[in-house]
Sequence to fold (338 residues):
Amino acid sequence: MTAASSITTPPAATSSSARAARRRRERRVLTALALLAAAAVAGFCLIGLAGNWEYALGIRFRKIATMVVVGVAVAFSSVLFQTVTGNRVLTPGIMGFDQLFVLIQTLVVFLFGALALSSADPRLLFAGQVAVMVFFAVALYRWLFGRRARDLYVLVLAGVVFGTLFGSLSSLASRLINPNDFVVLQDSLFASFNQVDPGLLTLSAVLVAATAVWIARLARRLDVVALGRDHALNLGVDHASVVNRSLVAVAVLVSVSTALVGPITFLGLLVANLARQLTGTFRHGTVLTAAALLSVTVLAGGQLVLERVFTMNTALSVIINFVGGAYFIALLIRESRR
Fold:
């Protein structure tokens, strides 16, 4: 036996050591993200705390709970949507959810006045918004994904068309309403964590938690679906069934988060891609967890910096959309060079 052959590492051992190294990296990244999220949450709850601590902490805990619910919903829905469409630049926002939410709010003000929007039962308004958005999403998904050859292209085209249609109708209706009502309407269209009804928060948390558990049970099959339809079928995974279940879950998560606080357009794109880059894995169990932790960190940390460092009263969604939009442009440039 030669010296060279005596030190050659068997392929199986090399593969095993590579897998172990990847798992160690995933654990380190998840631990770091969990500590970062915990630090952001603790900082938001404790920094600048004064006066009646019990009262102040109660308000901040409700805000944090809202951020966790919305963060998990946005992160899970974005990762799933990118998996089933096979494109890391797309998010559920391409389907026009944000514009549909704006249209619903605008029509309520246009038909019944701003007083109806502010005095309406929040549970009834929440249920109506979620029902409309889920119905729209499920109907559109079933129509589009009944095709086979051009799913992605038809999906993008339909999303742009419906988003433009909803935006145009909202713009038309907003020009016809009373200027005072318009001011109230504009205030309701920005994502806000300040005035969330506790009952709606509890209901949203239950819906998001149940959907997240359902998604977790699909995680291994989603790993196979990410390889493509042909590979999934060859490996014995019912591709159509997994895609349809995932799209229903996406519709529920996006509808709940948007109806609860309003649209946050680019948060999902930001955390889903960062989670994949940081973990360096395709396994959805790891990517979903990392994306959720990143989402909570961005929301809690961003709100903390916005309020305590810059002492700004603007909505956090404005900053997130600015940063996410710049990141989206960077992704498009990078993808075009491949």
User: Anything to note?
Assistant: DSSP finds 15 helices and no strands in the chain. The chain has one domain: 33-336. Confidence is low (pLDDT under 50) at residues 1-13. Residues 11-46 form the longest helix (36 residues).
